[in-house]
Design brief:
Layout: H1 6-20, E1 25-29, H2 36-50, E2 55-59, H3 62-75, E3 79-82, E4 94-98, H4 99-103, E5 114-118, H5 126-129, E6 137-142, E7 146-149, E8 152-155, E9 162-165, H6 170-175, E10 182-186, H7 205-212, H8 215-228, E11 234-237, H9 241-252, E12 260-262, H10 267-279, E13 284-288, E14 302-305, H11 312-319, E15 332-336, H12 340-344, E16 351-353, E17 361-363, E18 373-375, E19 382-384, E20 413-415, H13 417-454, H14 460-477, H15 481-489
Parallel strand pairs: 1-6, 1-9, 2-4, 2-5, 3-4, 5-6, 10-15, 11-13, 11-14, 12-13, 14-15
Antiparallel strand pairs: 7-8, 10-20, 16-17, 18-19
Length: 499
């Protein structure tokens, strides 16, 4: 039996309290590395072994199913795997199942009392849940309880009605030795505006690959890794397969073997690479669309972000691969070649999630007395305090002519705690602005919809075209929506030229 950490015991108690209050759809949120699989396994143990309940555990990847099976074995829970190609034993009280297997036609669903959904931000389990009574207890678990719809971040409030979170500041988890701190180095941020796709959830991978595959950027990724992290077990996250191969070639020219791990790779070969990373036989690997979830390699002490993203989910899942402690590991070095830290906030930021359908995430408010930041003219690290003080990294005097948080081409800049706080504040303000913009946009859409009907449009497709034809003009005008309607759309009420 695994001994739970204090905060894990609190999470289990909060789950039971929610069940006692009659909650039937519970979302459990635990940062990467804090042991949500252990929490889930303990709840399954209590249900199956102590209360003779039947449990269905759902996941979308074999790695997640294997992890759960291993933990259940440690907890002494009888269980069976329900995966395509494996023998089935539906008599076991706990079924660890692939959701892809269950949604296949003709698959018999086990009779259960509790359904647990791992990485529930990735799985729309509606097709499964609809086949069970509506009062079936459903517990989802994730580090990032968010979803993206048409480029807008939403919560999981459409699936879950109550949230249980790890209520411990990340710094406290680091102090206790349960997580390691991050150290961030970042070069000049690449311009990825050409990869923007307004209605998409993230940048266009093909355009992003072209930008990030430029020889100067590939060279910087390789050279900075060799300079700062060549002794660290490393995961590199690439834009797509073509980009990953160019990165791999770039490392090969320096005599470094950096194999590409993707969903297209043979399952056995991929398992071999993961095994070699885990054992230390392989120093660095490049990931394309995998290795973000269900990968538990505590040895990893460097994350290289070579894939810019707008998705907080992708960002946190990637950097989380380096957050677990390991003997001799003092921190995780994040080499950010993408601007993700500036765009989405520092990885150490405490984030509070909600089931509010309009948003879902709020950064913890940083301190108001964040000190000024100055760049060391010798080592290019960022230093808090007034000019003239010694740089804590290289002992050079910070000259009075030093500039505030500017980045010199080709050099990595180290982000210390003060800068992390400054970035946290920036991220919070940016999130507030985006939330207000989403609210105003929603109000504008409703008003334009009404105007379309006023013009006599009845067909839903015509009304939609009208709304989204005029919406960009309203956004560009800078007017309140009511002024835009009066001064632009209704100035000639008898004309349909605006339609």
């Amino acid at each position: 039996m695994i001994q739970l950490r204090s905060y894990q015991t609190s999470v289990v108690a909060d789950i039971y309290a929610a069940i006692t209050m009659g909650k039937r759809r519970i979302c459990v949120v635990a940062p990467t590395g804090t042991g949500k699989t252990v929490v889930c396994s303990r709840v399954i143990h209590d249900a199956a072994v102590k209360r003779n309940r039947h449990v269905l555990f759902l996941a979308h990847r074999r790695e997640l199913l294997s992890q759960c099976s291993e933990k259940l074995t440690v907890f002494g829970v009888p269980h069976a795997l329900l995966i395509a190609g494996t023998p089935r034993d539906l008599d076991k009280p706990v079924q660890v199942a692939s959701i892809d297997t269950l949604v296949s036609d003709g698959v018999e669903l086990p009779s259960v009392d509790i359904i647990m959904v791992d990485e529930c931000h990735r799985i729309d389990a509606t097709k499964i849940l609809d086949r069970y009574p509506p009062d079936t207890l459903v517990i989802g678990a994730t580090a990032t309880p968010l979803r993206y719809q048409h480029g807008v971040r939403r919560s999981l409030g459409h699936l879950y009605h109550h949230m249980v979170q790890v209520n411990v500041p990340r710094q406290q988890l680091v102090t206790a030795g349960w997580l390691v701190p991050f150290r961030v180095l970042q070069p000049e941020i690449p311009d990825v505006r050409a990869a923007e796709s307004p209605k998409a959830n993230d940048y266009r991978a093909d355009v992003l690959s072209e930008i990030m595959s430029r020889p100067a950027i590939i060279g910087n990724v390789v050279e900075h890794w060799l300079k700062h992290a060549h002794t660290r077990p490393t995961l590199v996250f690439a834009c797509n397969l073509a980009h990953a191969r160019k990165l791999s070639s770039g490392f090969a020219t320096k005599g470094v073997q950096a194999p590409v791990i993707s969903g297209n790779l043979d399952t056995q070969v991929r398992s071999d690479h993961v095994r070699d990373l885990t054992s230390g036989a392989l120093q660095i690997a490049i990931s394309v669309g995998v290795m973000c979830e269900g990968v538990d390699i505590p040895r990893i002490s460097c994350i290289v972000q070579a894939r810019p993203t707008k998705s907080l989910i992708v960002y946190l899942q990637q950097v989380g691969r380096g957050s677990r402690p390991f003997p001799g590991k003092t921190d995780c070095l994040l080499l950010d070649h993408t601007g993700n830290v500036v765009r989405l906030g520092p990885p150490d930021m405490d984030r509070r999630y909600t089931l509010d359908p309009a948003n879902g995430c709020k950064a913890s408010k940083p301190a108001e007395d964040t000190p000024s930041l100055w760049r060391c003219p010798r080592c290019f690290c960022l230093v808090p305090g007034d000019p003239g003080e010694l740089c804590p990294y290289c002992a050079a005097a910070v000259a009075k002519r030093s500039k505030r948080i500017t980045i010199k081409d080709g050099h990595l800049v180290e982000y210390d705690e003060a800068l992390m706080m400054a970035l946290a504040r920036q991220a919070e303000l940016r999130e507030q602005e985006e939330s207000e913009a989403r609210t105003l946009r929603g109000q504008a859409i409703k008003r334009l919809w009404g105007v379309a009907k006023r013009f006599g449009l009845k067909n839903q497709a015509e009304i939609r075209r009208f709304v989204f034809r005029h919406l960009p003009h309203w956004e560009a005008s800078g007017m309140p929506v009511e002024d835009f309607i009066k001064k632009v759309l209704l100035r000639d009420a008898g004309s349909m030229t605006h339609v």
